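Structure in, sequence out. Go:
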């Protein structure tokens, strides 16, 4: 899959050719590791037609990287697990390297999507990033040697809370600046003036200082991965020796709490923009802190000390537009001083969006640009990636002055033996609660062959989205003889804020009924599908749904594969890294406390465990032993309950976390699922 691409700066601006460098990745099933490789493309600047595509070249593991003019900074692992190296490349040679273990100014650099940030200053003298704070040395009470001045005694077993699922080594982040003008000795400044009740991340240089976001960590840290509903402040640090800290934007400014996700700036002296959402802590109607992902607004600040303003993100001329959800930003996204690009889902189709800060409006560039994600901008050229369920990712390119119509750099190849189509769905009005009967969507992919088995696959979340883009996993199951129905039930992202929020308090009912309607409609639209060979597969909240469906509609499905499924919301509330999720999805406000008995009962009633006695289909559970989001106790409880009830159930355990994303585990999960489904087909 294509992960990033960059238009290289030509040595001679008058050159008639462009060079594009792209980074790709795929799992190497011989080594069970992710293989990354780089390719170069030569493109005619006038016609934007690709002329030459190089062979792929494998690249070493890169944890984080950034460009600035002719410099590139790279964070890489060292020889030992505890080591990290920062390399500074100047054009085509390695200028210098820094062994961070030798420098010993901090712990490991954060390379994740929630806190990680890496940027070279425009004068090429500094590199800013976030790293784990270097802890003071801790010695036992019975230590018999000298105790250093900053050492502590007897607290080596103190509890130190991390940031949860996939962030278990992230406890106490600090902002660090590496001086790029010297390496003997290396100089790193640690900014200690960030208050202890917030955890900084997403740093970049701006207005002669550093700007970033900081997440509130009291009264406890709530899991951050997949969650934009975390109380956040936007902060500024000056570059003085003291590193003075100022909060630019915080919830108190709007009488609430706010969640801030991504930042972008038009250079160090241009506008600053970010994505923000209200959490409605003091609202009597909306649930706090709300869906783990939801609609965001674009906020802009023209200058330090100025007043932030909001961009109008409505688009009345585009009927299917519902607002901005889980937007992506490329490293270079500014077209000029006033405009920048984002990409985000419009219902289940990803589209590019042009944000105009001067006019405070957006332009949705959906026509002809379906499922285009922006990767890079350089001068007037915009580079992106495009795919669909049967067409792998490929580079596309457009010229801004010619209307933003993207065209392939090289003609893509589709998997011609498969077809796909979107399905729009809506329940009959009778029996529907007022204000809840929204249209929702699904899409079907597979073969026209006869008697095809169907896998119904609802997404996790529940507040996420399955966009109409290429999936290696979907292609694998189609090649194995299955068709797939991906369901974007009510509560998904990309439709509207009301559409997303309507599911809270109705899980286990509304989303289940949507999956049933989608299945029925798919079987009606595609008569080549076998009604006797309908299977279920899903993970997390998708696992919650497929186990619910197996219990509520026991005669409809032939087999179920559930990956790290939520089985009992009540018991999960006390052990997950996101207890707020369990309250909110059950329809209750979260107040950093345990549920009362009545709420425990409500949570249980909305859970698959309440219907397990009705299950007839064989169940295969895939459980991650290191999952902090949906702890393995959920799967164990379901397994033993089904066993005690005489049901047919199997379970795999993996030394992995919530996504089961390690290459060897991912391969085993998908192959095991296909084998399991085929075994059920073979039964009489």
């Amino acid at each position: 899959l294509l992960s990033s691409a960059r238009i290289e700066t030509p040595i001679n601006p008058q050159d008639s050719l462009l060079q594009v460098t792209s980074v790709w990745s795929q799992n190497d099933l011989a080594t069970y590791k992710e293989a990354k490789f780089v390719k170069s493309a030569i493109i005619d600047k006038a016609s934007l037609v690709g002329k030459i595509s190089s062979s792929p070249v494998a690249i070493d593991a890169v944890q984080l990287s950034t460009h600035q003019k002719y410099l590139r900074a790279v964070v890489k692992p060292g020889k030992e697990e505890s080591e990290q190296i920062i390399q500074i490349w100047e054009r085509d040679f390695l200028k210098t390297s820094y062994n961070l273990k030798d420098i010993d100014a901090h712990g490991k650099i954060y390379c994740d999507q929630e806190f990680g940030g890496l940027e070279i200053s425009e004068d090429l003298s500094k590199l800013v990033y976030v790293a784990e704070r270097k802890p003071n040395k801790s010695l036992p009470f019975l230590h018999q040697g000298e105790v250093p001045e900053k050492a502590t005694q007897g607290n080596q077993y103190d509890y130190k809370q991390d940031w949860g699922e996939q962030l278990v080594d992230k406890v106490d982040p600090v902002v660090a600046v590496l001086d790029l003008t010297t390496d003997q000795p290396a100089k790193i400044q640690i900014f200690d003036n960030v208050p202890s009740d917030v955890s900084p991340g997403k740093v970049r240089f701006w207005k002669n200082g550093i700007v970033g976001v900081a997440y509130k960590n009291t009264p406890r840290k709530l899991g951050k991965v997949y969650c934009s509903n975390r109380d956040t402040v936007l902060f500024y640090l000056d570059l003085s020796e003291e590193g003075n800290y100022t909060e630019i934007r915080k919830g108190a400014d709007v009488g609430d709490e706010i969640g801030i996700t991504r930042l972008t700036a038009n250079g160090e002296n241009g506008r600053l923009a970010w994505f923000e959402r209200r959490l409605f802590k003091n609202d009597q109607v909306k649930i706090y802190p709300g869906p783990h992902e939801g609609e965001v607004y674009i906020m802009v600040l023209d200058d330090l000390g100025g007043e932030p303003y909001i961009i109008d993100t409505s688009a009345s001329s585009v009927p299917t537009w519902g607002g901005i959800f889980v937007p992506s930003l490329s490293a270079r996204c500014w077209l000029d001083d006033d405009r920048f690009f984002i990409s985000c889902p419009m219902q289940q189709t990803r589209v590019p969006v042009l944000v105009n800060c001067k006019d405070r409006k957006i332009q949705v560039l959906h026509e002809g640009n379906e499922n285009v994600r922006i990767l890079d901008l350089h001068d007037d050229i915009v580079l992106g990636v495009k795919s669909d369920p049967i067409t792998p990712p490929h580079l596309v390119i457009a010229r801004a002055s010619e209307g933003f119509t993207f065209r392939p750099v090289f003609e893509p190849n589709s998997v011609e033996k498969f077809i796909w189509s979107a399905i729009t769905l809506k329940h009959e009005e009778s029996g529907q609660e007022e204000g809840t009967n929204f249209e929702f969507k699904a899409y079907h992919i597979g073969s026209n062959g006869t008697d095809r088995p169907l896998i119904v696959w609802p997404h996790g979340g529940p507040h996420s989205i399955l966009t109409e883009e290429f999936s290696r996993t979907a292609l694998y199951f189609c090649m194995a003889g299955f068709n797939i129905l991906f369901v974007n039930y009510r509560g998904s992202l990309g439709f509207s804020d009301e559409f997303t929020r309507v599911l809270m308090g109705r899980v286990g009912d509304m989303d289940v009924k949507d999956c049933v309607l989608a299945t029925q409609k798919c079987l009606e639209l595609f008569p080549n599908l076998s009604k006797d060979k309908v299977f279920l597969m899903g993970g997390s909240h998708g696992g919650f749904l497929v186990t619910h469906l197996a219990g509520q509609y026991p005669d409809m499905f032939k087999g179920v594969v559930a990956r790290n499924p939520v089985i009992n919301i009540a018991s999960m509330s006390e052990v997950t890294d996101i207890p707020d999720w369990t309250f909110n999805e059950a329809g209750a406000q979260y107040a950093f406390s345990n549920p009362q008995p009545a709420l425990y009962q409500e949570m249980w009633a909305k859970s698959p465990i309440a219907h397990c006695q009705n299950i007839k289909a064989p169940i295969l559970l895939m459980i991650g032993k290191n999952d902090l989001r949906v702890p393995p106790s959920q799967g164990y409880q379901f397994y033993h309950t089904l066993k005690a009830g005489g049901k047919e159930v199997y379970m795999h355990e993996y030394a992995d976390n919530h996504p089961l994303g390690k290459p060897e585990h991912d391969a085993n999960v998908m192959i095991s699922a296909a084998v399991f489904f085929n075994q059920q087909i073979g039964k009489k």
